[in-house]
């Protein structure tokens, strides 16, 4: 069984729901827009 830490380490980078750009934040965070799209 995989540990919860390993599970989160192995998640792919999140992508912005608007532009598709990779979001540089923790993968388990609830946000789904990059900083630039969030400001619009």
TrEMBL record:
InterPro entries xrefs: YhfH-like
One Pfam short name: YhfH
UniProt name for this protein: Protein YhfH
Source organism of this protein record: Chungangia koreensis
Lineage: Bacteria, Bacillati, Bacillota, Bacilli, Lactobacillales
């Amino acid at each position: 069984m995989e540990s919860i830490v390993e599970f989160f380490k192995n998640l792919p980078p999140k992508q912005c729901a608007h532009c598709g750009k990779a979001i540089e934040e923790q993968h388990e965070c609830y946000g789904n827009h990059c900083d630039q799209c969030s400001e619009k």
